[in-house]
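hey so i finaly got around to running the thing on PKD domain-containing protein from Dawidia cretensis. pasting the sequence first so u can double check i didnt mess up the copy paste, my clipboard has been acting weird all day
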Amino acid sequence: MKQISWLVSLLLLATVFPSCREDEPAKPGNIRFALNPTVVNDGQGRKATSLPDGASVYVTIRRVSGDEVYTLQHVRLLKLGDEYISEPLPLAGGNYELTDFLVADGDGNVVYAAPKEGSELASWVDDPLPQTFAVSDNDITPVTVQVLPTDAHQPEQFGYVTFHVDVVPLPRFQLSVFRADGTALVFSPAHVYILSDGDTIYHRHLPAGTQPIDFAGEPGATYTLVVQEDALMTYSRTFVLVELLSELNGAPLQVTLDAAFTFTALARTDFFSYWLTTDVTVPDAFFTINWGDGTVEDYTVNTYLAFEHRYGSHGDYHVSMSGDLTTVRWLALVFGYGLADDISLQALPGLESISVSYSDAADTLDVSHNPNLQMLAIAHSTIQYVDIRHNPKLTFLDVTANTALPASVLNQLITDLHHNAVEQHIEQGELYLETSYDSGEILGPPSSDAMAMLVYLNQTLGWTVRPSPGI
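ok and heres what it spat out for the 3d tokens, dont ask me to read them lol
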């Protein structure tokens, strides 16, 4: 490090989030800048300093092939203690070069700049621009960028033609997302995406309330707004930016999300499928499914239907289903055709049976909103946690070959099942705990107290318990 009193060092951490799962309407990953400015004091060490109020960065990024991805892209900064964190910038996986790096104040005046190779000031920093970096899934790419103050030098001494940047207000509109709470509508948090030609240019998880939506959009361009949240139906609207702003005229765009059965479909085969049955007294139950890839379909169900969808490519897709959800009685997300994660059953209060067997996707299952549940099958699955305290009618539980289930969770399942059976005097139930079908070996193994409860269920209440306890 050069010992220069007016050198400011900014550690640029290109925090790369996973390239978007295909359940989210995003193709690129996100890169985020973390800056820690320090002043080097002529051999006296480093001293923390602050950037000007309202500071932001302008970056130019190109692929190593030479294709420019961002040209003096404005990226806003948020100060967290002594550190500055930028908003995420969408960037697909690959190898890149950082060719421009400018730090500007709130008025757009460039106050720091990173020198470029071959410039007069290039020797004053350890690694002048361009600097290469790679973006990949599940990784954090550290890039150290050193900048010099611009007040005593001309742009050409840094290798720039000019330090002028245009500060253009971003298009902005207000968004209010609501969900039903009884008979009233209440604000809801939500994931909000804006897509352009299939690529995500904006993604935030917004808190409940009326929130500003601003992004670097072209007034006459067409975009798609996608709003989604677990247990709520996905909303989608295509709009021309200038027309939307004119329509709203300063008022917020109001979106109401209906209650929905939601999950992440892990499409790994030629098609994705799940099954359900409905209340036999409702001959024609109606449902709408948003498959998470832009396809929305309506279905009429007469007691039983297998929903099948073919995705254009393998990936992860956020699926939401609304409609006559109170009529759903049996649901199966099983085998490789129905691999699912993030399963939300909150909107299925009448559910009596669910199976996620033969599935290596989800690790938790929340059935606390399903008081009528009678049958639960998580055999040959990766479920590690499920709580049945709120399911007093449960008479069938199959966890066969679920070797991922911790002994503590298994003990609690047995305890809760025993408690409910005794309280409700439930006889002739079924409980399957074998390490594999007909192995004769028990999972866990359960504690001595849990084993005593199994004996009581089997010998006193007549439950079928496999393997039979006490042998």
